[in-house]
Design a protein that fits this description.
282 residues; Rossmann fold; 40% helix; single chain; alpha/beta; binds NADP nicotinamide-adenine-dinucleotide phosphate; 2 domains
Length: 282
């Protein structure tokens, strides 16, 4: 039976360490602050943003929210980002996605100062990650590395397979695992013979968005399973991951639950990135 990689426990370890850093920064007269921009009325985004504000509050990080309506123009959004870029009291800027389709989210990400880009979506920071340089790394892949590290799970030489190639999870995950000397394979919707590839994974990272997609027969014995997916069952309203947790946990060595796995780690690493930005601000 697999050992559970408990994201709540790991996130609280990360956050407790950050509390000391926040206090030290405050003693030096630096009050770490996160500014979050939300455009439109996406209901999931509201929950994510609320969780981020709670985490800031717990750690004593200042939190500012900018709620823009659906009619907001690109110029108005860029002007707000520009204002926050130039505000020395703001250390991290986060643009919550999705934003209305008529707006260009990539242009907005490019506008966020690389020094305040706590989500790690500015192309300059993505490039630094690829080059193996110190930078802001997207919070979910960073959280995955952290939960593995806290559980003493070694990545060097391991066969790591990622399913999903999104800009926020799959792609930065490739680089994070490569930087840890894993041998990395990335799969997507056009991948053929997926089972044959997943069966060879020592570490399997799943970020697809399809409930219970990964079944027991797709997993090697003693594999480490990281389930990033967040899916809501329409009938029961319960949240579940991309992995058939009940059956896969019978063969895996370690597995993350959903909820309570990678979700809390993502928020903890956002806090980590805000503190990092504040430390680098002077
Ligand atoms: N826990 C967290 O903090 C957190 C953070 C971010 C996302 N998530 C969750 O993670 C899931 C993925 O989100 P995302 O934004 O990373 O990805 P996404 O943009 O929704 O894309 C899904 C990816 O899965 C691939 N895919 C879809 N069907 C597939 C199949 N049958 N076989 C193999 N690959 C398939 C797609 O391939 P193509 O590229 O070929 O289309 C794509 O790369 C969602 O449930 C999301 O809610 C959780």
């Amino acid at each position: 039976m697999a050992k559970i990689l408990d994201g709540k426990v790991a996130a609280s370890i990360v956050k407790n360490n950050l509390k000391n850093d926040v206090n030290e920064l405050k003693e030096k007269g630096i009050n770490p602050k996160l500014a979050v921009i939300m455009v439109g009325d996406d209901s999931s985004s509201k929950i994510y943003v609320k969780n981020k504000s709670i985490a800031c509050n717990d750690l004593g990080i200042e939190y500012e929210e900018y709620l823009l309506n659906e009619e907001t123009t690109m110029e108005e959004l860029l002007n707000l980002i520009d204002k926050l870029n130039n505000d020395n009291t703001v250390h991290g800027i986060l643009l919550q996605s999705p934003i209305p389709k008529k707006l260009d989210i990539n242009e907005a990400f490019r506008k966020i100062s690389p020094n305040k880009d706590v989500d790690g979506f500015n192309p300059l920071n993505v490039g630094k990650l690829v080059l193996g340089q110190d930078t802001f790394v997207s919070c979910t892949p960073l959280g995955i590395l952290k939960i593995l590290e806290l559980n003493n799970i070694e990545l060097e030489g391991k066969n790591a397979v990622i399913i999903g190639r999104s800009n926020i999870v799959g792609k930065p995950m490739i680089q994070c695992l490569l930087n840890k000397n894993a041998t990395v394979t990335v799969c997507h919707s056009k991948t053929q013979n997926l089972n044959e590839i997943t069966k060879k994974a020592d570490v399997l990272v799943v970020a697809i968005g399809k409930a219970n997609f990964i079944t027991k027969d797709m997993v090697k014995d003693d594999a480490v399973i990281i389930d990033v997916g967040i899916n809501r069952n329409i009938e029961t309203k319960k949240i579940c991951g991309d992995v058939d947790f009940e059956n896969v946990s019978k063969v895996a060595s370690y597995i993350t639950p959903v909820p309570g796995g990678i979700g809390p780690m993502t928020i903890a690493m956002l806090m980590n990135n805000v503190v990092k930005a504040a430390k680098q601000s002077k």
